[in-house]
Design a protein that fits this description.
By secondary structure, the chain is an alpha/beta fold. Helix content is 28%, strand content 20%. A hairpin with a 2-residue loop joins strand 15 and strand 16. The radius of gyration is 22 Å and the shape is globular.
Length: 450
């Protein structure tokens, strides 16, 4: 990456990341299952994850029309149009789409096989499949047990009688997407579903996101304050067409806020995030504020400006786990050890992000400790050992560092942040950002190089 020149006065920059992957995928599934033509504006459409989801719902019978960031979907009125022999859907490494579409077999008359790339075939889905089996689904793993590919046959040879109106108990899960998948498909089942969560609740903010989006779209949801009991019933007359505007992706916004923490000479405003966002990552600026940063707001635009010296932080990321890689880079420049909790889900993302962060930050002199004090939900980040990694006094140069990205968009975007404080940084496989943020590098140029 080219060096970023220091600006004599703060430079204001306004950016709008693509639409939220999480909200887009939820809305796409609901629109595809609804009756009539639904409209999504501001949706994520150009990223690989979105393309996989769009292609999948078309295979299942929905009609899709994309115009810029507006998507119009004519749904199937609660019942996928799948041939008797079934269909196979290849979702590459789109984890959200894989979980959501696996659960949607409850709305199918015939089998659905979900599969993906090599990494997806290592990512766990067994907890969701076990719940579907309790609802009458027949599951056949075609590779590693507990992971895709898996062939799912709906209950009652195509009927939903066994599933609809049921109550399912679910213990602690590795991913909140398993819960969200069931809540979303429940909106299309004649009798809905009741979910009882009996263990620790993983990433509760994403479950609340699902509930909030269902509520916005007119789907009745009742739930206890602690989320232990959630009841979804379809609207009277079934799930109907809707129009919704998708918020920008707060997970992507975290990288720009982290950049502001590292470069006070840039004031990067993330535009169009509502004050009461459905996304847990929208609260990331408050974590940076505890490190000494200042938050600037202009309407629905939010910027973070870093201090001269960053304080270490003790942060709970259970509601914003995707912010973990970006925060780790910021913590590498703090004055002491930072402790991050609520991070266990990072191990089952596009890569094992805790292991990847530890390996890559070691290249620049920062030590990352996973399983802190034998707690798989905690990690520590120690700051860069500056004397060892400082510029060579005689040559005035630093040794080059090439960071690996593990085919993980979040790793690429996070590791690029090091170039804001240090020259001679190379990002290997930078195009993996296309998974969710195809124009990330154009925005990078706009923020720091133009």
């Amino acid at each position: 990456l080219p060096p970023v020149q220091r600006a004599p006065v703060p430079i204001p920059v306004h950016l709008r990341p693509p639409g939220s992957k999480s909200l887009t995928n939820r809305a796409l599934l609901l629109a595809a299952l609804a009756e009539g033509e639904s409209t999504l504006t501001g949706a994520l459409v150009d990223a690989d994850d979105a393309r996989r989801m769009l292609a999948a719902v078309q295979m299942l019978g929905a009609k899709v029309d994309v115009d810029g960031t507006t998507v119009r979907i004519t749904g199937v009125a609660g019942r996928w149009k799948v041939p008797a022999a079934g269909v196979t859907i290849d979702l590459n490494n789109a984890g959200t789409a894989t979980r959501f579409l696996a659960a949607s077999v409850l709305a199918s008359p015939a089998p659905i096989t979900v599969t993906g790339n090599a990494r997806m075939q290592q990512r766990p889905i067994g907890e969701l499949i076990a719940t579907l089996e309790r609802l009458g689904v027949k599951a056949e793993y075609l590779g590693t047990p507990g992971c895709p590919p898996v062939r799912l046959t709906p209950p009652s040879s195509g009927g939903v009688e066994q599933a609809t109106g049921r109550t399912v108990e679910i213990p602690t899960t590795q991913s909140s997407q398993f819960i969200s998948a069931l809540l979303l498909v429940a909106a299309a089942l004649p009798g809905g579903l009741t979910v009882r969560l009996t263990g620790d609740i993983t990433s509760a903010s994403y479950i609340r996101m699902t509930i909030g989006q269902l509520d916005q779209l007119g789907v009745p949801v009742k739930f206890s304050d602690d989320l232990r009991v959630i009841r979804v019933t379809p609207p009277e007359g079934g799930l109907r067409r809707f129009t919704t505007d998708i918020e920008p992706d707060a997970s992507a916004a975290c990288f720009w806020w982290a950049a502001g923490a590292l470069r006070p000479d840039r004031r990067i405003f993330v535009d169009a995030l509502p004050a009461h966002s459905l996304q847990g990552d929208a609260a990331f600026p408050s974590v940076l504020e505890s490190m000494g940063c200042t938050i600037h707001r202009k309407g629905n635009a939010v910027a973070v400006v870093g201090p001269e010296t960053l304080r270490p932080v003790m942060a709970d990321l259970k509601d914003m786990p995707d912010a973990g890689p970006a925060l780790s880079v910021v913590c590498a420049y703090a004055t002491g050890r930072s402790v991050l909790r609520g991070v266990r889900t990072l191990r089952v993302k596009e890569t094992d992000r805790i292991a990847a962060i530890a390996t890559e930050l070691a290249k620049i002199g920062s030590t990352v400790t996973g399983n802190l004090n034998n707690d798989p939900d905690a990690m520590a980040v120690d700051p860069i050992a500056l004397p060892k990694f400082a510029p060579n006094a005689s040559e005035g140069m630093v040794p080059p560092i090439a960071f690996d990205t593990y085919d993980d968009h979040r790793m690429a975007m996070s590791l690029a942040l090091f170039s804001l404080r240090r020259e001679e940084i190379t990002i290997n496989d930078p195009q993996c950002v296309a998974k969710t943020y195809p124009n990330y590098w154009q925005h990078w140029h706009q923020a720091f190089l133009s």
